[in-house]
Design brief:
- 54% of the residues lie in helices and 2% in strands.
- It has 14 helices and 4 strands.
- It starts with a helix and ends with a helix.
């Protein structure tokens, strides 16, 4: 009888040990894939941001900035106080001396807006309405796109008579579009290119809720995309910059163009016009810089020249290398038992076989992912349950065997 009971106990023990759960890191693959995709996206974003701030640092060393550089520098937060003061002083001088061209007035409007000044009140002068009344821009799409942009990228009060002028500018720009969707520099002109089309797209983005404008915008977008070469690129960085400016302003994905324009950048932050050039080009550097900032602004629901949204870029900082920031595998304390331990495929053990991963136990035998994305076992409750099961079986066996031993002993006496 004793042999039978022993066999039953052994079988029970083996059954219990076999039925003990073996933990599997079910999140390991999916977590790794998610982290990999996230790291790739962050790496790509980091490259663009570093490129922008490299050029911003280049401009930050200059005593003064050009009008087209100032809004982008403000967005990066790299503009110096000295540069701001010089820019405002220059606008004051322009107002005092009188403007020869309305395009200079448009640039000053964009500068004042970027620097937090009201272009309709600065130096008690209404730059916006004075610009519209000047009228020297009529008939030139290259001028009118920036007059329209300057007048519509802010909450400005437009005089009744100037509202008609603003509408005329809008119609003039539409008249510059060719049948193929591209824009010429003059209405009915035959000099059509991507640069002009990109600038027109940016100006018209303020009217993108109008059905008539949307048709024009879609044709222009198709023209720009059809003008790319077999690799989806353009022949120089300036054209690429204007394509980025226009397409990003209407919500198009410009990531491929951004990737291409970065190949023109030099180590000091300047950009070349053509790849084969040995030195940086001032116009290319200026246009490429603000086009890149515009692409980032668009992704964040902002607009490079419209400071009603005060979005700014954040510079990528080198990660801290102190001990606390390093990724470590914490230790785990498990109940001491004589039963075999179950482990995950990625679990590390020390020389004594003790689990070196530490994590708070979770119910339902679930796995948890820590901040670094690594999965750890959380099934310690099951080890405890197994311990109590074995103890109970051992006690039951003793209860059965003990009386038998006593009976046999009494009989032998």
């Amino acid at each position: 009888m004793k042999k039978v009971i022993s066999k039953v106990m052994v079988a029970a023990l083996i059954s219990t040990m076999i039925s003990a759960p073996v933990y599997k890191n079910v999140y390991a693959d999916t977590t790794a894939q998610t982290i990999s995709a996230s790291e790739t996206a962050n790496a790509e974003q980091s490259i663009v941001t570093e490129s922008i701030f490299k050029t911003a640092d280049y401009y930050a060393k200059q005593e003064s900035l050009g009008e087209w550089q100032i809004p982008a520098m403000v967005r990066t937060g790299k503009i110096t106080e000295a540069q701001k003061e010089k820019a405002l002083e220059k606008v004051k001088e322009n107002i005092q001396n009188g403007y020869e061209y309305s395009t200079q007035m448009a640039k000053d409007i964009l500068v004042l807006s970027a620097l937090g000044e009201n272009p309709q009140e600065f130096c008690n002068y209404d730059l916006v309405n004075e610009m519209l009344e000047k009228g020297d821009y009529i008939g030139s799409c290259n001028y009118e796109v920036w007059i329209l942009s300057a007048a519509t990228k802010g909450n400005y009060t437009i005089d009744e008579g100037n509202k008609e002028i603003l509408n005329r500018i809008y119609e003039d720009i539409l008249a510059c579009q060719n049948e193929n969707g591209g824009f010429a520099y003059y209405p009915g002109g035959d000099w059509i290119d991507v640069d002009m089309t990109g600038m027109a797209l940016y100006a018209l983005s303020s009217y993108n809720n109008d059905e008539k404008t949307l048709e024009v915008i879609n044709k222009a977008k198709d023209y720009i995309n059809s003008s790319k070469d077999a690799e989806g690129k353009f022949s120089n960085s300036n054209t690429t910059a204007m394509a980025i400016l226009g397409l990003s302003s209407i919500g198009e994905d410009v990531s491929t163009l951004v990737e291409d324009i970065l190949t023109y950048q030099m180590e000091d932050g300047q950009f070349k016009w053509m790849h084969e050039e040995a030195e940086g080009n001032s116009l290319a550097t200026e246009q490429d810089f603000y086009a890149l900032v515009q692409s980032e602004a668009a992704k964040n629901g902002a607009d490079l020249f419209d400071f009603r949204n005060d979005w700014k870029m954040e510079e990528v900082k080198e990660p801290s290398k102190d001990v606390d920031s390093e990724t470590k595998t914490p230790e785990t304390v498990t109940p001491e038992t004589t039963t075999p331990e179950t482990t995950t495929p990625n679990e590390e053990e020390n020389s004594n076989g003790n689990n070196t991963n530490k994590n708070n136990p979770s119910p339902n035998n679930s796995s948890s992912v820590d901040k670094t994305g690594s999965s750890t076992k959380t099934g310690d409750n099951n080890n405890i349950n197994l311990f109590f099961k074995m103890s109970l079986i051992s006690m039951l066996g003793l209860a059965i065997v003990a009386p038998k031993k006593k009976e046999r002993g009494n009989g032998e006496r």
